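Sanity check record (used in CI):
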Amino acid sequence: MANPSAVCNGHLHHHHHQKQNNLLKSGICKKNGITKGMKKNGVSNGTLYKKTFIEHFEQAPMYVAVLTFLGFGVGTVFGYLRDFMRAWGLEKRNIAAEREQQKDFVPLYQDFENFYTRNLYMRIRDNWNRPICSVPGPQFDLMERVTDDYNWTFRFTGRTIKNVINMGSYNYLGFAETDVNALKTVAIELQKYGTGVCSTRQEMGTLDKHVEIEKLVAKFLGVEDAMVFGMGFATNSMNIPALVGKGCLILSDELNHTSLVLGARLSGATIRIFKHNNMQSLENLLRDAIIYGQPRSRRAWRKIIILVEGIYSMEGSIVRLPEIVSLKKKYKAYLYLDEAHSIGAVGATGRGVVEYFGMSPDDVDVLMGTFTKSFGAAGGYLAGKKDLVDFLRTHSHSAAYATSMCPAVAEQIIRAMKCLMGLDGTTQGLQRVRQLGKNTRYFRRRLHEMGFIIYGNDDSPVVPLLLYMPGKIGAFARRMLEKNIGVVVVGFPATPITESRARFCVSAAHTREMLDTVLNALDELGDFLRLKYSRYSKSSHPELYEETSLELED
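Expected output for serine C-palmitoyltransferase:
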């Protein structure tokens, strides 16, 4: 395999294109050796997968799609009617308006998102940005607020809603906690270092805690080196431009997180999108990239890098890593894996999708993850070969311009990671990983049995429950809060406009009693709002693998 450090030093094209002609001659279009993961649509398990791989993307009945479009149609008609009334002074204008002196200027906002925000989102805005006044553990306390003008403004009542079951936070392993004994070392580091570093990593912001955490992260992942950053989003958006640039090609999954999308756009590289987890779509792009090269000049691409996530946060699906690694090796491309939601959450010991599939960390050129979820902290990391990390220490925009990670936050990550690795002398970390797996499978199985349409992999702690119709988004979240259950509801533009959903995040800290309370409430509310759409139909996501030959190299 090519040296991953070539991703950063610009030498990839020398190695990358030596073997392109041989690859084309060796049978890109072979139809033998097809390997597939087990899915609900009947695809059999192949040699690439060491365990059953089950994902669900059930299609809603036709009447649901019709009613969803009808609901948005009615909302749009009334939205234009209300805009007309606002324009003629028949209804109060609560939104910002252009000044009279600027009436001939091009409006700042004139796209659909502004219309949607003004006339649809505002009616259900009370279901977002709810202020929490406690640790976001398995339960939290919520500040009650009400509105007198249909969600344009809010006022607090002074009342606190106690012990709301938290089904929305990414607290996968339960490390978002306030136990005094657990946080003892964090308190010591806070007392020693204070709260801020006040400098960048390249200036006076590298502390001994940063060196310690980077060594621990590398050991945890089984790689040569790692570098940590103070913000998870910026780990992607500020470092991808350091790895690729003009003359490079990025192949990005269509459902990648905004941080990956932003990083790819800032890099100046050419971006091509492949269908979600669809190996034929990815292989077609790889094949075309090698055959045709860059547009107009037809020169070979300097670098080709594949961007994927471990667990996709809106779909709950897990990347088909064995097949992507096989394609990466076959076409001599490079792989950037974002494990923001998967590190700590899957794998026998919480080491993410690489461990989940029983693969080697060396199969992935750039390993990325965040500490904001499973570790109950903040920030992110990039890991891989030492040459790669050394390059990033010099060329990373975050290292040059962003303030370093707070030492107390670093200590929180260290204590959580040591717990996972058993370096604290206990098996508590392993127990948390196993409990998360049990809770996830139990919660998903019960929702399936009740008849809800849920997306994603059976082992994914991210559980999207499809609501579809716009009117049910607000009704669902409000009624769940009445039952003392806090949920996250998601709609356009974070999802396709017709696939509104509630997204549950299962935690190891959830007790069986808590999950049963939530499931009983969902069962009742599912009947009341008519949300049980499941017919156990085949996936609506196309599975096109017939022309793909995937064989792992020795």
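Confidence is low (pLDDT under 50) at residues 1-45, 537-554. If this sentence no longer matches the regenerated tokens, the check is flagged for review.
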